[in-house]
Amino acid sequence: MAYSGKGRIFNIQRFSIHDGYGIRTIVFFKGCYMRCAWCCNPESQEYAFETLMENGREKTVGRDVTVEEIMPELLADMPYYRRSGGGITLSGGECLAQHEFARDLLKACKDNGLHTAIESTANVPYEYIEQVLPYLDLFLMDVKLMDGAKHKEYTGADNALILKNAKKLARSGVELVIRTPVVPGVNDTREEIGAIARFAASLGTVKEHHLLPYHRLGQDKYGGLGRSYALKGVEPPSRERMEFLKACAEESGLTVQIGG
Fold this sequence. Notes:
alpha/beta, two-stranded antiparallel sheet
């Protein structure tokens, strides 16, 4: 079957055990509406093609692909998906910034019997989300902060639309998991994590809250793109701190896990 739809991506990662159930293939979309200070994929933020210096060599980041072109790569690991309960996850950047391509790619995946997920902030018009819902099994939604002013300070965007869309998604019937990157000095307190967990629990249909420890694996990319890294010197949270925050979040009644 021929599939239409064209979009811009910067990576396809096979054999991932994160961002959804089982063994998965992650398709990373280019372009994002936010600029999180801790973003580990800064090459995903701009929709435009970019040049990244990596190990002393120039690397072009971004390529335009069609659904039909990349489907064989996504289907190559079908035996592993079936054995592990895995599938395909769209990530980014913000995959819903290219909502029509996301819709077409998810539809092709569902036509081929694949479990589908997206990792998103949902900081988009809800009409974009509605277009992908018929072909989506799991929505992994980042809720980073509850305070709107603080959210804008660290991400470049207010969180009002994000929280509004979370409430609509909770009523949509799709499986919704709330995820929070835990960043020292930003949101690693009982008050911050507790507030997010209580919000997630208030949605009614959310059962899981994932706490994702901050890491610096993408820090070198900023230099390679000629940008400065805002959180230079910030250390990842300790295991003890993550366990403490997990216990705080569990007071909401949700199932909480460290990592996603």
